[in-house]
Amino acid sequence: MSIRNVLVVDDSRTIAWILKDTLEAAGYDVRCVHDGDEALKCLETYLPDAMILDTLMPRVSGFEVLGKIKASPKTSMVPVIMLTASGRHDDVLASYRLGADYYITKPFKQSELLHGLDLVLGPKKQPSAA
Asked: Whose CA is closest to 15, among 124, 117, 113, 120?
Protein backbone atom coordinates (compact mmCIF):
# COMPACT_ATOMS: atom_id res chain seq x y z
CA MET A 1 0.00 0.00 0.00
CA SER A 2 1.57 3.29 -1.05
CA ILE A 3 1.20 6.46 0.96
CA ARG A 4 -0.76 9.19 -0.80
CA ASN A 5 0.79 12.64 -1.04
CA VAL A 6 -1.20 15.83 -0.40
CA LEU A 7 -0.11 19.41 -0.98
CA VAL A 8 -1.80 21.86 1.40
CA VAL A 9 -1.87 25.51 0.31
CA ASP A 10 -3.16 27.92 2.97
CA ASP A 11 -1.83 31.29 4.06
CA SER A 12 -2.91 30.57 7.65
CA ARG A 13 -0.09 28.59 9.21
CA THR A 14 -2.51 27.48 11.94
CA ILE A 15 -4.96 25.99 9.43
CA ALA A 16 -2.09 24.40 7.48
CA TRP A 17 -0.77 22.82 10.71
CA ILE A 18 -4.25 21.49 11.58
CA LEU A 19 -4.63 20.04 8.09
CA LYS A 20 -1.16 18.49 8.18
CA ASP A 21 -1.78 16.95 11.60
CA THR A 22 -5.20 15.60 10.57
CA LEU A 23 -4.00 14.14 7.29
CA GLU A 24 -0.82 12.62 8.65
CA ALA A 25 -2.86 10.92 11.40
CA ALA A 26 -4.99 9.43 8.59
CA GLY A 27 -1.88 8.08 6.84
CA TYR A 28 -1.17 10.78 4.24
CA ASP A 29 2.21 12.34 3.48
CA VAL A 30 1.69 16.12 3.59
CA ARG A 31 3.60 19.14 2.34
CA CYS A 32 2.45 22.65 3.22
CA VAL A 33 3.04 25.94 1.46
CA HIS A 34 1.57 29.27 2.43
CA ASP A 35 0.78 31.18 -0.74
CA GLY A 36 -0.03 30.71 -4.39
CA ASP A 37 3.47 31.54 -5.62
CA GLU A 38 4.95 28.86 -3.35
CA ALA A 39 2.36 26.36 -4.57
CA LEU A 40 3.18 26.93 -8.23
CA LYS A 41 6.94 26.71 -7.55
CA CYS A 42 6.44 23.52 -5.53
CA LEU A 43 4.50 21.93 -8.39
CA GLU A 44 7.49 22.38 -10.70
CA THR A 45 9.28 19.54 -8.87
CA TYR A 46 6.57 17.80 -6.82
CA LEU A 47 3.41 16.16 -8.14
CA PRO A 48 0.98 15.38 -5.30
CA ASP A 49 -1.84 12.87 -5.48
CA ALA A 50 -4.22 15.67 -4.37
CA MET A 51 -4.20 19.32 -3.32
CA ILE A 52 -6.11 21.21 -0.67
CA LEU A 53 -6.23 24.85 -1.73
CA ASP A 54 -7.45 27.99 0.02
CA THR A 55 -9.00 30.66 -2.20
CA LEU A 56 -8.23 33.85 -0.31
CA MET A 57 -4.46 34.33 -0.22
CA PRO A 58 -2.14 37.28 -0.78
CA ARG A 59 -0.45 37.89 -4.16
CA VAL A 60 -1.76 34.87 -6.08
CA SER A 61 -5.27 33.72 -5.17
CA GLY A 62 -6.35 30.13 -4.98
CA PHE A 63 -8.54 30.75 -8.03
CA GLU A 64 -5.47 31.80 -10.05
CA VAL A 65 -3.50 28.78 -8.80
CA LEU A 66 -6.40 26.44 -9.64
CA GLY A 67 -6.68 27.89 -13.16
CA LYS A 68 -2.95 27.41 -13.78
CA ILE A 69 -2.95 23.88 -12.36
CA LYS A 70 -5.86 22.77 -14.51
CA ALA A 71 -4.44 24.47 -17.64
CA SER A 72 -1.10 22.64 -17.38
CA PRO A 73 -0.83 19.15 -18.90
CA LYS A 74 1.61 18.23 -16.10
CA THR A 75 -0.81 19.03 -13.25
CA SER A 76 -4.29 19.05 -14.78
CA MET A 77 -5.16 15.59 -13.44
CA VAL A 78 -4.28 16.43 -9.82
CA PRO A 79 -7.55 16.53 -7.87
CA VAL A 80 -8.05 19.84 -6.07
CA ILE A 81 -10.22 20.38 -3.01
CA MET A 82 -10.98 24.02 -2.34
CA LEU A 83 -11.01 24.72 1.40
CA THR A 84 -12.07 28.26 2.17
CA ALA A 85 -13.98 30.52 4.50
CA SER A 86 -16.04 31.74 1.54
CA GLY A 87 -19.31 29.94 1.07
CA ARG A 88 -20.49 32.51 -1.49
CA HIS A 89 -22.35 30.84 -4.32
CA ASP A 90 -20.27 32.75 -6.91
CA ASP A 91 -17.02 31.46 -5.38
CA VAL A 92 -18.27 27.88 -5.34
CA LEU A 93 -19.33 28.12 -9.00
CA ALA A 94 -16.06 29.81 -10.00
CA SER A 95 -14.10 27.02 -8.34
CA TYR A 96 -15.99 24.28 -10.15
CA ARG A 97 -15.77 26.16 -13.47
CA LEU A 98 -11.99 26.36 -13.04
CA GLY A 99 -11.82 22.62 -12.42
CA ALA A 100 -12.08 22.10 -8.65
CA ASP A 101 -13.02 18.57 -7.72
CA TYR A 102 -14.63 19.37 -4.36
CA TYR A 103 -15.41 22.43 -2.21
CA ILE A 104 -15.36 22.61 1.59
CA THR A 105 -16.07 25.69 3.69
CA LYS A 106 -14.29 26.62 6.90
CA PRO A 107 -14.85 25.80 9.67
CA PHE A 108 -14.73 22.18 8.59
CA LYS A 109 -14.95 18.82 10.28
CA GLN A 110 -12.09 16.36 9.97
CA SER A 111 -14.52 13.73 8.71
CA GLU A 112 -15.65 16.11 5.94
CA LEU A 113 -12.05 16.65 4.82
CA LEU A 114 -11.23 12.94 4.83
CA HIS A 115 -14.47 12.16 3.00
CA GLY A 116 -13.56 14.75 0.36
CA LEU A 117 -10.20 13.07 -0.19
CA ASP A 118 -11.92 9.68 -0.45
CA LEU A 119 -14.23 11.15 -3.09
CA VAL A 120 -11.46 12.59 -5.25
CA LEU A 121 -8.89 9.81 -4.75
CA GLY A 122 -11.07 6.80 -4.02
CA PRO A 123 -11.12 5.17 -0.60
CA LYS A 124 -7.78 4.23 0.88
CA LYS A 125 -7.14 0.50 0.54
CA GLN A 126 -6.86 -1.36 3.78
CA PRO A 127 -3.91 -3.72 4.12
CA SER A 128 -4.95 -7.27 3.39
CA ALA A 129 -4.82 -9.82 6.17
CA ALA A 130 -2.18 -12.50 5.71
From this structure: 113
Mean of the per-residue pLDDT values of the chain = 92
Cα 54 to chain centroid, rounded: 8
Contacts 24+ apart (CB under 8 A), 13-22: 15/54, 15/83, 15/106, 19/52, 19/83, 19/113, 22/110, 22/113, 22/114
Tell me the whole-structure pTM to 2 decimals.
Answer: 0.91
Q: 3-class DSSP state for residue 1?
A: coil
Q: Going from the N-terminus, what domains does the chain have, and what CATH number goes with each?
A: 5-121 (3.40.50.2300)
What confidence tens digit (pLDDT) does each residue in 90-129 have? 989 999 999 999 999 999 999 999 999 999 998 766 555 5
Q: Kindly write down the DSSP assignment for every residue of 36-51, as one continuous string.
A: HHHHHHHTTT---SEE
Q: Is the pLDDT of residue 66 over 60?
A: yes
Bridge partner residues of 32 (DSSP):
8
CA dihedral defined by 62, 30, 109, 77, rounded to 10 degrees? Answer: 50
- The helix or strand, by DSSP H or E, that contains position 104, with its residue range, turns out to be strand 102-105
